[in-house]
Design a protein that fits this description.
Helix content: 25-40%
Largest sheet: 2 strands, antiparallel
Bound molecules: iron/sulfur cluster
Radius of gyration: 12 Å
CATH class: Alpha Beta
Number of strands: 4
Distance between the termini: 30 Å
Order of helices and strands: EHEEHEHH
CATH topology: Alpha-Beta Plaits
Strand order of the largest sheet: 1-4
Strand content: 5-15%
């Protein structure tokens, strides 16, 4: 199992989580940033330690099995960020983020 970053990261994106992750599975880091709306956890690398969840100022991070119903789409989004290339990811999720009012 993995942690999942959900909606409240949009517009916050302060990266408190990045520096506490022992396996560097939260991206994009500051130097990798390409204007993404939020950060994402790589579910294949995450060891589910919970360190990120405890430092997130807006409680955007949940264990996968506890993601609230209204945020369940973010499980797929976090996975897709690592599975798809940038163009595919944008094509699939751009409208979703637009509907959220993300800038
Ligand atoms: S749960 Fe632990 S390993 Fe997974 S993203 Fe958070 S800090 Fe990293
Ligand atoms: S700590 Fe929370 S709000 Fe900040 S970047 Fe990480 S998930 Fe997003």
């Amino acid at each position: 199992m993995a942690r999942v970053i959900t909606e409240k990261c949009i517009g916050t994106k302060d990266r408190s989580c990045v520096s506490v992750c022992p396996v560097d599975c939260i991206h994009p880091t500051e130097s990798e940033d390409g204007g993404e709306f939020q950060l994402y956890i790589d579910p294949d690398v995450c060891i589910d330690c919970g360190a990120c969840e405890s430092v997130c100022p807006v409680s955007a991070i949940y264990p996968e099995e506890d993601v609230p119903e209204e945020y369940k789409t973010y499980i797929e989004i976090n996975k897709d960020y690592y599975k798809l290339n940038k163009e595919e990811f944008k094509a699939k999720w751009e409208n979703f983020y637009k509907q959220k009012g993300a800038k």
